[in-house]
Amino acid sequence: MTVAITRTKAEQGFTQNFEAAAAQLPGGPGVAAARRAAIGAFAALGLPHRRLEAWKYTDLRAALKEALPVAVGAVRALPTRAQIDTALEGFAELDAHRVVFVDGVYAQGLSAQATLAGLRFAPLAERLAKPEGAAEDRLAAATEQDAVAALNTAFMTDGAVIDIARGAKLAKPLLLLFIRSAGEARLLTTRNLVSIGANAHATVIEAHLTLPGTAAGQSNALSELAIGEGAQLAHVKLTLAGQAESHLATWRLTLAAGATYRAFQFTAATGLVRNGVDLRFAGEGAKADVSGCFLGRGSEHIDTTLVIDHALPGCESRELFKGVLADKARGVFQGKVIVRPDAQKTDGKQMAQVLMLSEDAEFDSKPELEINADDVVCGHGSTSAEIDKDLLFYFRARGIAAEAARALLIESFIGEAIDKVAEALRPALMAAARRRLAQLST
Amino acid sequence: MLKIENLRVKLAQEDKLILDGVSLEVPKGQVHAIMGPNGSGKSTLAYVLSGRDGYQVTDGSILWNGDNLLALEPDERAAKGVFLAFQYPMEIPGVATMTFLRTAVNSLRKQRGEKEFTTPEFLKRARAEAARLGMPDDMLKRPLNVGFSGGEKKRMEILQMAMLEPTLCVMDETDSGLDIDAVRVVSEGVNHLRSKDRAMLIITHYQRLLNYIIPDRVHVMAAGKIQKSGGKELALELEKTGYAEFQSRAA
Questions:
Q1: Nearest CA distance, A322 vs chain B (angstrom)
Q2: How many C-beta atoms lie closer than 10 Å to residue A138's C-beta?
Q3: Which of A19, A245, B15, B178 is 20 to 30 A from B205, comparing alpha carbons?
Q4: Could you report the per-residue pLDDT of B196-209, keeping only the tens digit for each?
Q5: Which ipTM was obtained for this model?
Q6: Model-level pTM?
Q7: Ramachandran region of residue B173, left (φ > 0), alpha (ψ -120 to 50) or beta?
Q8: Which of the following CATH numbers is that of domain B2-250: 3.30.70.870, 3.40.50.720, 3.40.50.300, 3.40.190.10?
């Protein structure tokens, strides 16, 4: 018996757009085959919808009305460094090693020209084109049960392939910039493959931004990171203000024994944002902190979905997410912590807190603990609240006007999360948050 | 001069009057104490003076130097010089004490038409006042009141009072939860602020604090009314006789 599956306009569009763009997408025959397999997998899966547990509150099938044309080929006009810096706000001053992608393609002229000791970088497009295809193996290793990842494999145009040498201590943070520049609404698809050698220390900042005057588009960004034994990685994702119809981001991480991973996601973009994090402890005694802050207004939809897989003993995981929601904005937090039978001495703590500035805002929170070991310490919590009237009165009784008091209280609320970031980044993050908060109606 | 006339107040959601016709005058330069049993309406009076939500004034007036306080928002009252030292100071995680203080001080200075302090000016003053109250500098860097002991929180209230330079100081049970040494330190802080331009209203259940801060007048409050007023010796009398007389009189 055959079952006819009805596909939405967007689902059909992705398949059609693939056929139209396939010949122009980078990579040799092996890569082309992987892409074709991926779009096949997508065609079978369709866009994720609310009956899938992981997408319960973010029904992409309903939300995505169409598949935008694929951004492929040369970028017509590159933005200037000044335009980028303006859009980067406080982060522009950061002394970082920049690697810039404009509309899904590596922009060498805007990227750092000097080398950084311990860092090896190649644009993904270049790597895909190599016949021996080291990247291909890694692509093939990714199982495509996930429709969003399948779309990424099918459409990826470029990204950063990064290897940080064993024992290297990068002198500067690495700033990966993904810029949507002027032009019609398009789909941008990037993939990063990051490998941090044993005992290396690095900071990687991934910033997504849209330049002013740019049509709202779709983006699909996937980063795969392998963090070596004893390595220390600070990882920040900035999804900054700017028009976006949808931004689907996925991080897939593995941590080797004794690795320390500190991640922070700051989301202040418009439209629909999904930040998926899939983290697996692949060695004992590793530590991960995945935290963040999201600020939503209008009819924005910001989804954070984490899966933290304690596959081995003695690992520690921490998650703290703070959100501020105004107007009809909707926040989603799903945090699943899996403790496998062997993962004794697991220590996991999770917290999601939202401040609601409007009665029409919505926060859906689904913490999940799946514990299959007996000697573990795990906890989770979730709160949503309005601004505390007693605290507000305390501020006002000290002469601080209502609006300023509210702003300080909101800042203090998200400040607890921002305090998780390395000190050097806090002022720029706080400034970005303040600018955003000033736009939220109260 | 603070002039309260026939003040009647109920909770916004309930009908029962908590203040049932309070009349009181506190001239500048004087310290008055309000003593009374629990539930007599003392704290409500403090909150209504400072403009907290949730109360409804059904009758009467509050004038401070001729300004009708009841028509003003809490921050506007603060600009007019009103300060409430809270019985239970709030903990504010994520706001450094110094940031909070500087925001408050400069916000008030601006509203009062004075020049805002620069950071060095402000730091100098804050450190000097903290030192007077025996508070280490690092307390000023910590989030406001978070992890502070009861005594530290009360000292922080007095530090704020010193920094904000109010002219009407209302202290709500400032001695509650303090050991005898802390009472002494806090009292010295308060006495230091006594001046001919400042009126103070000290709300307390016990006479103990008034050994250190000698009041010009003492008022006994029970059942939402001032039942008796007198000199500082009234506090000592109360310590012996208790409040039973006033409670039965009110009932």
A1: 13
A2: 16
A3: B15
A4: 999 999 999 888 99
A5: 0.95
A6: 0.85
A7: left
A8: 3.40.50.300
